């Protein structure tokens, strides 16, 4: 497939294993450092099995994205799949929700980074110190992405390694100190409300995989490599999450009430050295996920602009760097404004229901696309025909039913705004 002057990247610069690193980097973020305590507070020792079950459930969604990705070489991800399956309006609404999710996520993670370094710098989440961390982290990531997707991919791989090493050490050392009685199921009944809250929590600890296909036009062999990366990622992430949850449950009796669960658990069984490493790991983890967010979000904006939504200059490609510089800078500026005006929790909630809307769009698209493109050479064929996409749709609807009314209203308003923007297409 020949590259045009309006296409980002050069020579499809990103290799298969760089794509795997990007996918792991996008999913393992701040959630793994907060997940053990929050899940234990809702489910107790049963949280261990809930983490494993959530990994299998999210695999349904991952498989839908992997199958859809095997049909296309171009950028856009869920926007592209929904547009091809259901037409331009549905495609635009999915792309619009994807873009809003990425902007809110970038802003939330910038705030999360300021909170994470308070272990070393107590004043980091207030005043000019917070502004410096938020603006500095976003500015650095914007600059890396302007230079080129290869630089961003290399940074993503290094950050993925940086966030995995502390977690591997935490599990490897902590496994010898686990008290099996602490991690054993207590047998106490669980409320429907706690199960619903835990389901949303666990889903979004695994979220982020949907962004990988957005930059498919800059991968060497996207129809082959994106499905491979997605499947490798979900297996790796599930193993890491379950292992971390098991060690945390078995080494920290007061896990449910901890604000820094992995650092506290590490200090109990290995001293302050490992606790310090876990705190550094949390900062690297947040920065790594932010890096992927700043990489992927402009690609959604680029795809929408090149299809006629918004000013034409949003789709411009830099002649030297071959990156969508205008889109990258605009996303960075909006994310900075949101980050400075809200808290981590408020901004994270903005992405909850919008993600589920995009999951529904892609799972539904697979049901249509498998009939149109399923016979292509190299296309992924899922076992059971339509069963996996139908199960993914049911999962998404069930999770939507667990969301707070305020989040559902916010998503509905966003969709209405998107419909207005759609009518203004060039």
For this structure, what is the CATH class? Mainly Alpha
Please summarize the sheet with the most strands: none
How many distinct beta strands? 0
Overall SS class = mainly alpha
Shape: globular
| Contiguous helical run count | 17
Number of domains: 1
What is the CATH superfamily classification?
Amino acid/polyamine transporter I
Portion in beta strands: under 5%
The average pLDDT is 82
Helicity range:
over 70%
N-to-C series of helices and strands: HHHHHHHHHHHHHHHHH
CATH topology tier name: Amino acid/polyamine transporter I
First-residue to last-residue Cα separation: 27 Å
C-alpha Rg, in Å?
A: 21 Å
Q: What is the name of the CATH architecture? A: Up-down Bundle
Low-confidence stretches: 1-7
């Amino acid at each position: 497939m020949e590259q045009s002057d309006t296409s980002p990247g050069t020579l499809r610069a990103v290799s298969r294993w760089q794509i795997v690193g990007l996918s792991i980097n996008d999913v393992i973020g701040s959630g793994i450092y907060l997940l053990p305590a929050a899940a234990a507070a809702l489910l107790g020792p049963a949280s261990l099995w809930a983490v494993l079950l959530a990994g299998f459930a999210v695999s349904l969604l991952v498989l839908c994205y992997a199958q859809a990705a095997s049909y296309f070489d171009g950028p856009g991800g869920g926007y592209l799949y929904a547009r091809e399956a259901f037409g331009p309006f549905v495609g635009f609404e999915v792309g619009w929700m994807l873009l809003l999710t990425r902007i809110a996520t970038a802003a939330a993670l910038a705030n999360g980074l300021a909170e994470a370094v308070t272990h070393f710098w107590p004043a980091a989440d207030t005043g000019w110190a917070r502004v410096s961390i938020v603006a500095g982290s976003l500015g650095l990531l914007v600059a890396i992405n302007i230079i080129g997707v290869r630089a961003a991919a290399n940074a993503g791989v290094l950050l993925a390694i940086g966030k995995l090493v502390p977690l591997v050490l935490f599990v490897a050392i902590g496994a010898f100190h686990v008290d099996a009685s602490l991690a054993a199921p207590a047998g106490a009944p669980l409320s429907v409300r706690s199960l619903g809250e835990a389901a949303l929590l666990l889903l979004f600890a695994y979220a982020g995989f949907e962004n990988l296909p957005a930059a498919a036009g800059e991968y060497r062999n996207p129809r082959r490599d994106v499905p491979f990366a997605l499947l490798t990622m979900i297996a790796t992430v599930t193993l890491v999450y379950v292992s971390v949850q098991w060690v945390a449950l078995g080494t920290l009796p007061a896990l449910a009430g901890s604000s820094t669960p992995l650092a506290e658990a590490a200090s109990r069984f290995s001293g302050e050295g490992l606790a310090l490493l876990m705190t550094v790991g949390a900062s690297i983890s947040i920065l790594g996920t932010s890096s992927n967010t700043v990489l992927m979000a402009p690609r959604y904006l680029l795809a929408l602009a090149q299809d006629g939504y918004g000013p034409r200059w949003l789709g411009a490609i830099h002649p030297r760097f071959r990156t969508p510089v205008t889109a990258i800078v605009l996303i960075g500026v909006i994310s900075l404004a949101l980050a400075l005006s809200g808290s981590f929790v408020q901004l994270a909630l903005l992405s909850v229901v919008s993600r589920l809307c995009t999951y529904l769009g892609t799972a539904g698209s697979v049901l249509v696309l498998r009939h149109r493109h399923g016979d292509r050479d190299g296309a992924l064929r899922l076992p059971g025909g339509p069963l996996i996409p139908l199960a993914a749709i049911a999962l998404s609807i069930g999770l939507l039913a667990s969301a707070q009314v305020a989040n559902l209203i916010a998503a509905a308003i966003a969709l209405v705004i998107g419909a207005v923007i759609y009518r203004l297409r060039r």
